[in-house]
Amino acid sequence: MRLRNIPRAEGTVQAHKTVIKRPEDQKGCWRQVFGNKNPVYIEIGMGKGQFILNMAAKYPDINFVGIERYTSVLLRAVEKFDTDEFKELNNVRFICMDARNVEDVFAPGEVERIYLNFSDPWPKARHARRRLTSTEFLERYEKVLADGGRVEFKTDNTELFNFSLEQVKEAGWTLENFTYDLHHNEEMNQDNIMTEYEEKFSKKGNPTNKLIAVRK
C-alpha cells in the first residue's frame, strides 16, 4: 500500500517539542533527555502512536521513545500527543529514523525493552533480512539492550510469527513466552495495550500472535 504524503508533515514534526531532531547526539544520554534515571523502553515502527502514548500514560516511571520512519505517519502520533488525554505526558519522545540505525542512537545497555507491533512482514523471501525480527535486527537490538533486556513482538501474520520464532532460536536468544492467540491467553493478555491495527482486526476475529524474547 502506497503511503500518502502529507506536505505539512515535515515542518510540523520537526517543530514539535517531543521530536528529537538529532537523536544520534543523545546516544548514551537518554536519561538526561528525560531528566531522570528511569528505564528506557522503545517502540520501533510505532505507527500513529496509540500504543506508546497509552503505555506512557499507564507507566509514568518509564521513559518511552517511539521510532517511526515516515514523517507522514509520525505526524499522526504528535497530533495524538497534543490531545487533552496525552499533552501533559513528559515521559515520551519521538524519533523519525530508520530502525537499521538503532545502534547509532542508543548506547550499549541503554535500552531495557523493545516493542515491535505489527511490523511490515516483507513477505518475499529475498526481503527476509528487512524483517524487524530477523537475526540481523536481533543482533542490532542485542547491542543496545541491557542484560536481561526483552523484545516483545505482536503480529497477526502467522507466517511472519513462525519466522520470528525460528529467528529467535537461531540468534541464541531465550524465548520467554509466546502465544498464537493473545487475546484469549489470560496470562499474556493481562496488561495488553492494543495498537490501532490490533483493535481494528481483533474486532473482525483475527487472532494476534505475541512472543517475548530475552537477549542472549
What report would you give on this structure?
With 216 residues, the protein is α/β, with parallel strands linked by helices. The chain is built from eight helices and seven strands. A seven-stranded mixed beta sheet has the order 3-2-1-4-5-7-6, sandwiched between helices. α1 packs across α4. The chain is globular and about 40 Å long.
Radius of gyration: 17 Å
Tally of strands: 7
Q: Trace the largest sheet across and list its strands.
A: 3-2-1-4-5-7-6
Beta-sheet strand percentage? 15-25%
- What are the low-pLDDT stretches, counting only 5+ consecutive residues below 50? none
**Cα-to-Cα separation, first versus last residue:** 36 Å
Q: Which quaternary structure do these chains form?
A: single chain
- The proportion of residues forming helix, as a percent range, comes to 25-40%
Mean model confidence by pLDDT? 95
Based on secondary structure, the structural category is alpha/beta
- Biggest sheet descriptor: 7 strands, mixed
SSE succession? HHEHEHEHEHEHEHE
Count of helix runs: 8
C-alpha geometry? globular
Which descriptors would you attach to this protein?
216 residues; alpha/beta; seven-stranded mixed β-sheet
List the helices and strands and how they pair.
Elements: H1 9-15, H2 30-34, E1 40-44, H3 50-58, E2 63-68, H4 71-81, E3 92-96, H5 102-105, E4 111-117, H6 135-144, E5 145-155, H7 158-171, E6 174-179, H8 196-202, E7 209-214
Helix pairs in contact: 1-4
